[in-house]
Amino acid sequence: MPTTPLPxxxxxxxxxxxxxxxxxxxxxxxxLQEALKQSGVILYFYPKDSTPGCTTQACDFRDAKDxxxxxxxxxxxxxxxxxxSHQRFIDAQGLNFDLIVDADTSLHELYxxxxxxxNYGKTYMGAIRSTFVISKDGIVQWAGRNVRAKGHVSRVLNxxxxx
Length: 163
Fold this sequence. Notes:
Layout: E1 21-24, E2 29-31, H1 32-35, E3 40-45, H2 52-63, H3 65-70, E4 73-79, H4 83-93, E5 98-101, H5 106-110, E6 114-119, E7 122-127, E8 130-134, E9 140-145, H6 152-159
Parallel strand pairs: 3-4, 4-5
Antiparallel strand pairs: 1-2, 1-5, 3-8, 6-7, 8-9
């Protein structure tokens, strides 16, 4: 199921998070509005499954899951990778949270996590490593863009006064 197309919104702190429906690694639908009835959501965008930085970040979220869960937060990762790639990543790293498939980048664009990047002098469009902490009332409590993989989860924990 492709992500529900919606107009692009630059998501920022203090505003309502754009609602969406997307597909998880196992084909189940994920509805942000439904998820927020259960807990706040930490939605993090990353470039690619099984790459060094993305693995570090995912494993840090995995290791902090009990802390997030205990405080009422659900972690969800988002990348352009396929369901099969996400499932391999989950299995290989023992990830204990869901990953959203955003092959067409519409969810990345909706949250402002897709844009121009430069690496080794080459300019291209790509995922901007970003995290959005969305409270149960649907408001973006914290937004981080262009974050570094290493140490990022500690920063999120600190922002939520969980460290």
